[in-house]
Write a structure and sequence with these properties.
- 27% of the residues are buried.
- Helices cover 22% and strands 35% of the residues.
- It is globular, with a radius of gyration of 15 Å.
- By secondary structure, it is of the alpha+beta class.
- It has an eight-stranded mixed sheet.
- The protein is built from three helices and eight strands.
- β3 and β4 form a beta hairpin.
- The structure holds zinc ion.
Length: 139
């Protein structure tokens, strides 16, 4: 465990959308991103896809219901930027570091996500930004 939560790079930026097929088609047509698989993640209440945008990625998130987390987000704020994901090494250790530093965590322990092993940090601790830690899982 270290005293700071060093970040490797921005892993992806999460974007909440109403229609993931339409959003993916838009990014392919306008920004020339490669095709990507849309995955249902029932436990998180979303259909999601990671798209390669230049040197980083966007994670498109379509809620499966208005009551899901992303559904409520869109209900309150509309479509748009949802979260920022930092790629880290040793996510379990980094979560302990953040706890020690007094940062509020949504996930007390890491779990499996679309982009690897993930955990969310509460936006009230990060200037209103819902922040996700990601540890890449080797292919
Ligand atoms: Zn994410």
């Amino acid at each position: 465990m270290t005293e700071v939560c060093t970040v490797n790079h921005i892993d992806h930026v999460g974007v909440a959308v109403n229609d993931i097929e339409a959003a993916l088609a838009f990014f392919k047509k306008v920004f020339d991103v490669p095709d990507a698989e849309i995955v249902l993640m029932e436990d998180q209440g979303v259909r999601a896809t990671l798209i390669e945008v230049g040197q980083t990625r966007l994670e498109l998130l379509e809620p499966t219901s208005p009551e899901s987390g992303v559904g409520r987000f869109i209900g309150r704020r509309g479509e748009g930027l949802h979260h920022l994901a930092f790629n880290v090494t040793d996510i379990s250790g980094k979560l302990q570091t953040l706890k020690t530093l007094g940062v509020d965590l949504i996930d007390q322990s890491p779990r499996e996500g679309l982009s690897g092993t993930i955990a969310f940090v509460h936006p009230r601790s990060v200037f209103g930004i819902l922040t996700e830690l990601v540890e890449s899982v080797p292919e």
